[in-house]
Design goal:
single chain, about 450 residues, mainly beta, AttH-like fold, 8-stranded antiparallel barrel
């Protein structure tokens, strides 16, 4: 795709940002506007988008309110932030007892300009997308574990980067990295192939397949596959995927196989209507910097089922959080069904990882069927393969994706007096996002931008 003159790119970004309403702008907006006028790389733009916060959603079209497959396997370029996320918990084929390889990848696209500015400047929707591919590989062999992170890979076709967003067949590309699948007339996007090419540091070639055809292999998250305001979006997942391929890390090749998971999610901010203007703050009042993040998980269980859900951190850190969104995913002969769960989550043993961001390394979930039934009354205890799952995304924010083994205790049957507690095991990932103090990220981002 042909690059656009750098001066024209900067002018378009400035025009787009100037259209953002005052109440959508962060306090650092003047500095970001200065940086936008000088933007020359994809990663600079990614950092500007990250620091705009909710304002980055302004000027994008609203996402769909109902899902239709295979159309909604594709990327929704007119909408807000969107990503495909995958994980794989694998064993080394020639050394299954001693060798474990865990791979996590996320490819995210974000709009650099509003739809109106895009159209006014004659850009294509693809030229408006800044794409970031991040990945980690956790190796556990011979009693020693370590994490290897992919080098930064941020691409923007407007400045000459290589990206692709194809529908049939499905292709999502960020430089040398790609996620691809058939997305054929039968409604399949699996086999789903993953390529992460980071030269001598990391080379991942994996194929993920499902036992089920088309949308029978996925389940809808949120509310029938959508999320409500103020975080509008779409959300669905493929659990229990079979994974095969090779992982090359630092010159060592691992032939691997195991289980994986794919998420496709789109989120954009749309603030609720304000019936009355907010009152002015009292003299001397200042806004307290507050955390705004979550702790999420996905586990493939040995019995063919799965578990996922999240607790959220807003304001100050709460080590004993309300687990307000959860699903137990049951495997059937034709696909998957879900049962909504609620309960509590305990976080413990916080440790400083990248950029000294404190993240949990111990998780515990106590949840039950929120309808009040006794089929699911679970205690879920993950154990990290290696405690540090932290990595930096293209906008310099620090996320945590930690591979874990998991034990699930179901007390439901004993509550029905039908038998003892049942136990199953599994593997997956525990995620920590938004645990860095906003001021710390602000300082690092502005220093990177040089403003």
């Amino acid at each position: 795709m042909t690059a656009i003159d750098q001066t024209s790119v900067a002018e378009a970004v400035v025009a787009s940002m100037q259209s953002i309403p005052e109440d959508w702008r962060p306090d650092c907006f003047p500095a970001l506007l200065t940086a936008a006028g000088q933007v020359s790389t994809a990663q600079q733009m990614a950092v500007i988008i990250g620091m705009l916060g909710n304002g980055a959603s302004y000027g994008a079209d609203a996402p769909p309110t109902t899902l239709a497959f295979p159309a909604d396997y594709a990327l929704h370029l007119e909408n807000g932030s969107e990503w495909y996320w995958f994980s794989a918990n694998l064993t080394v084929d020639n050394d299954p007892k001693e060798g474990q390889v865990h791979v996590l990848g996320v490819m995210a696209r974000n709009r650099a300009v509003t739809v109106a500015v895009e159209q006014a400047n004659g850009w294509t929707p693809a030229q408006s997308q800044v794409v970031d591919s991040a990945a980690t590989v956790t190796i556990s062999a011979g009693g020693v574990s370590r994490i290897v992170r992919r080098s930064p890979n941020v691409q923007w076709s407007a400045l000459g980067g290589q990206t692709a967003f194809e529908t049939q067949p499905f292709l999502y590309q960020c430089g040398p990295d790609s996620y691809a699948g058939p997305n054929d007339v039968s409604g399949n996007v699996v086999p789903f192939t993953v390529v992460i090419d980071d030269g001598d540091n990391m080379n991942v070639q994996l194929t993920l397949t499902s036992d089920f055809e088309g949308e029978n292999g996925l389940f809808l998250q949120g509310i029938n596959g959508t999320t409500p305001a103020p975080k509008l979006g779409i959300y669905y997942s493929w659990p229990q995927l079979k994974v095969t391929g090779t992982v090359v890390v630092e010159g060592v090749t691992y032939p691997v196989s195991g289980l994986g998971w794919i998420d496709h999610q789109l989120i954009m901010y749309r603030p609720p209507e304000k019936p009355f203007p907010a009152p002015s703050p009292a003299p001397g009042w200042t806004l307290t910097q507050a955390l705004d993040g979550w702790s999420w998980c996905q586990f493939n269980l040995a019995n063919g089922d799965a578990f996922t859900g999240a607790s959220f951190v807003t304001g100050t850190l709460n080590n004993n959080a309300f687990f307000e969104y959860g699903l137990y995913v049951s495997r059937t002969e034709t696909g998957f069904t879900t049962t909504a769960l609620m309960g509590s989550q305990t976080l413990d043993r916080f440790a400083p990882f990248l950029e000294n961001v404190m993240m949990p390394t111990v998780w515990r979930y106590d949840v039950t069927d929120w309808n009040g039934g006794f089929q699911f009354d679970l205690t879920v205890v993950p154990g990290p393969v290696y405690p540090d799952g932290s990595f930096a995304t293209g906008n310099l924010k620090i996320a945590g994706e930690t591979p874990v083994t998991v034990t699930v205790l179901n007390r439901g049957p004993s509550n029905n007096q039908t038998g003892p507690c049942t136990v199953t095991i599994g593997q997956g990932y525990s995620e920590s996002v938004g645990y860095e103090a906003p001021g710390q990220y602000l300082q690092r981002g502005l220093a990177f931008l040089g403003v």
